[in-house]
Design a protein that fits this description.
By secondary structure, the chain is of the alpha/beta class. Helices cover about 30% and strands about 20% of the residues. The protein has a 6-stranded parallel beta sheet with strand order 7-6-5-11-12-13, with helices on both faces. The chain has a 4-stranded antiparallel beta sheet with strand order 1-4-3-2. It has a 3-stranded antiparallel beta sheet with strand order 9-8-10. α9 packs parallel to α13. The structure holds adenosine-5-diphosphoribose. The site of adenosine-5-diphosphoribose has 23 residues, from α4.
Length: about 325
């Protein structure tokens, strides 16, 4: 890799993999000064979009060699965090293929663990949680997705999930769900674990889906041992919360913040056995799912698919940057 110096005012001499399409807002330290910078990809260059770019370049020219070196180091770090293709410049990783994603190499002895998150349903019109205009931009999860919220105001929580149920009831599986289902029909040794509570994997034809955070179209009693049951009613808000035969309230069959996700023993057994781990459309912020990749990385190849690098990027060997509905059909194409 050539030395990381400024080039023609604003371009850095870093060539990027063509699948990098993200912009990042960062703070760049130059000596004592901290400058906000927006980085983006322009053709195959890393570009500074910040209005302050001239100032940054001037400061860089005036800076001492040691603070320039620090700045270059932080740029390398930024490049590392920006995308996997950039990491290839450090000689460690090969860039994701440009336009056409090559099929994932899967041998007959491989065992796959697929972890999906809200991003896999985004192209079906179901909002994610943490993207701009995601659910947690419009609601506080403390108000609608915790046991305390349920005790404090069960009607609010019930109505929140009734709205989500209505949205999900109108959604249709997209090419990402379909590609996953087709792969599952081809491979027995595929464990599909989703954090999503919609039923789009099932509607796409996935035969086995583990919903670690529960299911929108199931309910259960808040206190007795009656098992969770199918519940497709739409409960137009403000509908009264139904009662169990035992007299207690029925609650959504959802794992709220502060509760333990479902079937963790089965999940960890599958993680221990897998040789390929692939996370799709999940920001890597919520535990324990955020740590699954690191757990699997001890023996498995690890991949990520999504339009932006996740928070836990560093545990993935390769990132396929793009929408799941565009990448997965190629990635899972029969060789
Ligand atoms: N294809 C793939 N990924 C996408 C797409 C797409 N078309 N659109 C958005 N994404 C990515 C975003 O870049 C983001 O990284 O999906 C991710 C969604 O992240 P979150 O909103 O944090 O959702 P998720 O990781 O599934 O959240 C985990 O948090 O609130 C809880 O219980 C909730 O299960 C949820 C958990």
């Amino acid at each position: 890799m050539s030395a990381c110096t400024w080039e023609s005012g604003s371009l850095l001499p870093l060539s990027l993999g063509p699948s990098v399409c993200t912009t990042r807002s960062v703070e760049l330290r130059l000596g004592a000064a901290c400058r906000p910078v927006v980085l983006a990809k322009d053709k195959n260059k890393l570009v500074i979009l910040s209005e302050a770019k001239d100032l940054i370049v001037q400061s860089f020219a005036k800076a001492s060699p040691s603070s320039r070196a620090k700045c270059v180091a932080s740029l390398r770090l930024l490049a590392y965090h920006l995308s996997t293709p950039l990491r290839s410049l450090c000689g460690k990783f090969s860039p994701s293929p440009p336009m056409n994603t090559q099929p994932l190499a899967i041998s007959p002895t491989d065992r796959l663990f697929l972890l999906t998150g809200a991003g896999v349903s985004a192209e079906s019109g179901i909002p994610t949680f943490r993207d701009s205009n995601g659910l947690w931009c419009n609601y506080r999860f403390e108000d609608v997705a915790t046991p305390t919220a349920w005790r404090r105001d069960p009607q609010l929580v019930w109505d929140f999930y009734s709205m989500r149920r209505r949205d999900a009831a109108h959604a249709k599986p997209n090419p990402a769900h379909q590609a996953i289902a087709a792969l599952q029909h081809r491979l027995d040794r595929l464990f599909l674990c989703t954090q999503n509570i919609d039923n789009l994997h099932e509607l796409a034809g996935s035969p086995r889906v583990l919903h670690m955070h529960g299911e929108l179209f199931k309910s259960r009693c808040e206190s007795c041992t009656r098992p969770p049951f199918d519940d497709a009613q739409l409960y137009q808000p403000p509908a009264a919360i139904p009662r169990c035969e035992c007299g207690s309230q029925i609650r959504p069959h959802i794992c709220w913040f502060g509760e333990v996700p479902y079937d963790l023993d089965e999940i960890y057994a599958a993680l221990d056995a897998c040789t390929i781990f692939l996370a799709i459309g999940t920001s890597g912020t919520v535990e324990p799912a955020a740590s699954f990749a690191a757990h699997a990385a001890r023996r498995a190849r690890t991949y990520y698919v999504g339009p932006e690098p996740p928070v836990n990027l560093r545990v993935f060997q390769q990132c396929f940057l793009g929408k799941a509905g565009q990448i997965l059909p190629d990635l899972f194409a029969a060789p």
